[in-house]
Amino acid sequence: MANPSSALAICVKNDEYDASLELRKVYKFLPDAEASKGDQLRVIDESGEDYVYPKEFFVCIELPQAARRQVLAVLA
Fold this sequence. Notes:
By secondary structure, the chain is an alpha+beta fold.
């Protein structure tokens, strides 16, 4: 991934977190070695804050540069 500070993932599950995560929405996630050890991702959720969620709730995605810029602009 070119810029790990703006890695992207799609939410595919939100059990018990439906107020914080929207299904099928693209989220930014941040590198977090500790969270990764526990099969979790540090995600910037609906509150605009970053929290740790189960990795199984997301599918990491790579987008072409033009699409990536547009998605990141919307998420900013």
